[in-house]
Amino acid sequence: MVSEQVMDLVDKGLMLPLMEEFYTIQGEGYHKGTAAYFIRVGGCDVGCHWCDVKESWNAETHPPTQIASIVDNASNYSDTIVITGGEPLTWDMGPLTAALKEKKLQTHIETSGAYPFTGIWDWICLSPKKNKLPEEEIYAVAHELKVIVYNKHDFIFAEEQAEKVNGKCILYLQPEWSVREKMVPLIVDYVMKNPKWKVSLQTHKYLNIP
């Protein structure tokens, strides 16, 4: 049972339900192929049926961890820190990102945008989901839009989302891993016909790394 004192610190973003942290190669989107330290925060109610980290959904199964400890670990590995989940914006990201910036680290986030925008970010990857649409404020600040393509209707959803982001946002279509053999040819064809889009692949899975 987590004490009320600990829950208060979690609510303030001074502790976070930490699922895992690891140093690896960014596998997706604009920064693919670059080294980064990943911090995976527990907690998500967006509920994508194809999610490959469903174990992140229940925040109660991941121990509340002091952000000072998280930052100390991260600073030992890389200049680029990627906050992912779960859905990191479930929690107040302000204290964690402020502490990372004090260490002069680059802060990246991968988010569905489904909760109010918090934190200080050098790079924002918005990956919107139909189940729980993004808050309007994040569209103006997203650096990349990454739409996961599971079926043909997702192309329509992708265009709807592309209409909302700012003009500098880079647009990516990424096949959902379990249907990649079916969807990759469709994505390639779509991007060739609509070159404002780029193809994103989960290259870390091809490399067999986290």
Automatic annotation (TrEMBL):
Its cofactor is S-adenosyl-L-methionine; Mg(2+); [4Fe-4S] cluster. Substrate binds at I25, Q26, G27, R40, T84, P210. Its EC number is 4.3.99.3. Keywords: 4Fe-4S, Iron, Iron-sulfur, Lyase, Magnesium, Metal-binding, Queuosine biosynthesis, S-adenosyl-L-methionine. Binds 1 S-adenosyl-L-methionine per subunit. One of its GO terms (molecular function) is carbon-nitrogen lyase activity. S-adenosyl-L-methionine binds at W50, C51, D52, G86, S127, P128, K129. It is an enzyme of class 4 (lyase). Pathway: Purine metabolism; 7-cyano-7-deazaguanine biosynthesis. [4Fe-4S] cluster binds at C44, C48, C51. InterPro entries: 7-CO-7-deazaguanine_synth-like, Aldolase_TIM, rSAM, rSAM_sf. It catalyses: 6-carboxy-5,6,7,8-tetrahydropterin + H(+) = 7-carboxy-7-carbaguanine + NH4(+). GO terms for biological process: tRNA queuosine(34) biosynthetic process. Residues 31-210 form the Radical SAM core domain. Homodimer. PANTHER family: 7-CARBOXY-7-DEAZAGUANINE SYNTHASE. Belongs to the radical SAM superfamily. 7-carboxy-7-deazaguanine synthase family. Catalyzes the complex heterocyclic radical-mediated conversion of 6-carboxy-5,6,7,8-tetrahydropterin (CPH4) to 7-carboxy-7-deazaguanine (CDG), a step common to the biosynthetic pathways of all 7-deazapurine-containing compounds. This is 7-carboxy-7-deazaguanine synthase. It comes from Flagellimonas eckloniae.
